[in-house]
Amino acid sequence: MINRKVAPPIQDPVAFDLQLKPYDYYTLDNGTPVYAVNAGAQDVLLIELVFFAGNWYEQQNLVAATTNFLLKNGTRQRSAFDINEHFEFYGAYLNRRCNSETATLSLHCLSKHVNELLPVIGELLTESIFPEEELDIYKQNQKQRLQVNLKKCDFVANRLIDEYLYGFNHPYGRYTSTLAYDELEQEQLLDFFRRYYTNGRCLLFVAGKLPDDIIPQLNKSFGTLPFNKESLPHFNHPPHPAAEKVARIINDEQGVQSAIRLATPFPNRHHADYPKAQVLNSIFGGYFGSRLMSNIREDKGYTYGIHSHIENHIQTSAWVVSTEAGRDVTKATIKEVYHEMERLRNEPIGEEELYLVRNYMIGTLLGDIDGPFQIINRWKNYILHGLERDYFYKSLEVIKTITAQELQALANKYLQPEKFYELTVI
Amino acid sequence: MIAFNRFVLDNGLRVLVHEDHSTPMAVVNVMYDVGARDEDPNKTGFAHLFEHLMFGGSIHIKDYDEPLQKAGGENNAYTTNDLTNYYCQLPAENIETAFWLESDRMLSLAFSKRSLDVQRKVVCEEFKEHYINKPYGDAWHKMRELAYRVHPYQWMTIGKNLEHIEKAKLEDVKSFFFKHYTPANAVLVVAGKVTTDEVKRLAEKWFGPIDAGTKYTRYLPEEPKQTAPRYLEVYADVPLDALYKTWHMDSRLEKGYYVTEMITEILGGGGSSRLYQSLVKEQQLFSNIDCYHFGSTDKGLLAIEGKLVKGRTMEEAEQAIDEELEKIKDTLVTETELQKVKNKTESMIAFEDMTIMSRANSLAYYELLGNADLMNEELSKYQAITAAEIQQYSRQIFDVNNSNTLRYYSKR
């Protein structure tokens, strides 16, 4: 008979020697940098073009996001339908995304089709025309989508907490409105497109089972474009955090839950506290076994889920706790969040818990760097944040060696209720 | 091609091993052949609530998560109308931890009253978060009730209402466990950096001693063929009118299932699909439109749903959908369009199969369907579909007598 009460022996992930596969580096004829990870067994590819074309660079709300969204909606030669038809015929996914500093165009495809697809991406980046009727449809449908979203307490809370942290005029704090959609004009999109895409600053990230001729192919489609010639304008957007720390909003009288957000400003990834705070954050609310989950979900049953995270902004960041909890237990939930902060400030984390969290973080990190897309994504993050090449190993070392005393000191520095914005939206 | 080895333990547990030595990780996936369709109509939501209780401690181990996290692993689970799946991923060196944990909760739960009390509340909050506190959150509850008269697909996995969950008792939990959570009702898939010999040894060691229990035989009422269109109108505090339509389709292993998958791709897959191009772009009747099917094991539903552009009427919207459906019934799809959806399917399968977690999950599901080899036959089944078959099945499915329509109006 086996003894089921005794756990089988394990090898501590803390002792693992994790390696992040290095990227290969190339430059195209026009100087565009290419970061490549050639790995994986499946014949699939990811090609991501990153432009410094986020809302950091726009002069008017929504211009960056709209330009990015409508990149697939018409060139001098092709209609929106033709473009979609082309990529979908090859079973490829062409996605775009607009962030704060950057905006991306990413292609997932079977490796065998890549040569049919790259030239059309080149065309989108130089010959997009942002047709008036496409813009009109976009405005109409986005406004409708916004109307529906505004009925959701979590959506409203996410907008407001960013506004409190950074101010509405900051790229991280700004959000959409019907009026902002109405004010968009084709000419603004064209200007933004020419300046920040066609003549913009571009970086390429490619991963998967790369065909032998991938660099010549990239060069053919992108190496002759006017990327990276002009330097980026320098915009300074200082945050203007709200003065009032507490807000209670009733968005829906009938609401049965409230969206709760507690947030405090936090430095960017270059700060020495950042990797350490990642460990503290895990313990606080960063995984299923965290203090917040154990107490507020698994002990009290106030919510389906409660999480904390540190935002991944380039310039300045924030530490955020978020949950949707029963309307009648809103106050009790907030009280317990503060209680968990207090425990982290007042009591050193026990050895057993710290050992568990180290193992958990490293074990899951091992899974997170498994596969070409995951690897390139991590490198992309480091590169866009301007971090050193050994950042991965340094933060790994922090997970392995940080002490309970350091974590407690960190809790005392940051997890102070009076530094937190406290928002509830019903 | 996903290679695997298969063996069956004496107690009936089916074990599949998919070796992939390119990853440092291992996945242990246990799929139980029980879902919301196996529930008592007066105790709905139970299979899903039960999934939560599976983390509330087993007979010898008071906490499931801690030892797994200590071993560097993470896990999750989900319940559908058809099945319940538990999966964890951890560094391959520590795979025995997963065998220990999974086998103990297959052996027996701790049946803690406290866990039930807490998880009832958690699931009620989950219900509120997704189905009550969201605009249009009740639409699919209503649609399922409309489309199914006797088959248990008439309720959602989360359950018909909060009361059913609030009423769950510990004796219900116990009887549910011993009825459904037996080795013969489960499939174990281990994938990643493992060898079949090692998995065999560990499976015998940890799962071998579990009592076979009684194999549950499923007798579900078959949904009678629908013979007249059904309509339901709802007025709610939502900003826009929305339209939901469904049609009954073939079950998972029937030919029609595969053809239906292609039909939904042609109609609703992506920016070049027919419904998007015609109804969102050209006619501007809908601000969004989707066409998909439920992927159900028994006879499922093909669905079209969208929100109307303000100022357009429900009649216009429905008529425009009907016109598109008439086209696919009347005219053969072109070779190019057929090739496009086949290429898309090939690509979808390639991307789906990238992670060992997804491969393990698929293997378990096909084994549950009766044969894990089916996983490797899927692509060729899609590739063999002809334009004539698409037309034939479109005619069969998009028969007005087979349709259910939910008109979800914005109350002024």
Can you tell me about this structure?
- The complex is a heterodimer of chains A (426) and B (412).
- Chain A is of the alpha+beta class and 426 residues long.
- Chain A is 42% helix and 18% strand.
- Chain A has two domains: 19-222, Cytochrome Bc1 Complex, Chain A, domain 1, CATH 3.30.830.10; 246-425, 2-Layer Sandwich (Cytochrome Bc1 Complex, Chain A, domain 1), CATH 3.30.830.10.
- Chain A contains 15 helices and eleven strands.
- In chain A, the strands form two sheets. A six-stranded mixed beta sheet of chain A has the order 1-2-6-3-5-4.
- Chain A is globular.
- Chain B has two domains: 5-206, Cytochrome Bc1 Complex, Chain A, domain 1 (2-Layer Sandwich); 230-410, Metalloenzyme, LuxS/M16 peptidase-like (Cytochrome Bc1 Complex, Chain A, domain 1, 2-Layer Sandwich).
- Chain B starts with a strand and ends with a strand.
- Chain B is globular.
- Chain B has 15 helices and eleven strands.
- In chain B, the strands form two sheets. In chain B, strands 1-2-6-3-5-4 form a six-stranded mixed beta sheet, sandwiched between helices. In chain B, strands 7-11-8-10-9 form a five-stranded mixed beta sheet, sandwiched between helices.
- Chain B has helices at residues 46-53, 65-70, 95-107, 113-132, 139-147, 162-166, 170-180, 196-206, 255-268, 274-282, 314-330, 335-352, 356-369, 378-383, 387-397, and strands spanning 5-8, 14-19, 25-32, 74-79, 84-91, 186-192, 230-236, 242-248, 286-293, 301-308, 403-410.
- Chain B is of the alpha+beta class and 412 residues long.
- The chains are: A alpha+beta (426), B alpha+beta (412).
- Chains A and B meet through helix 2, strand 5, helix 4, strand 10 and helix 12 of A and helix 2, strand 5, helix 3, helix 4 and helix 10 of B.
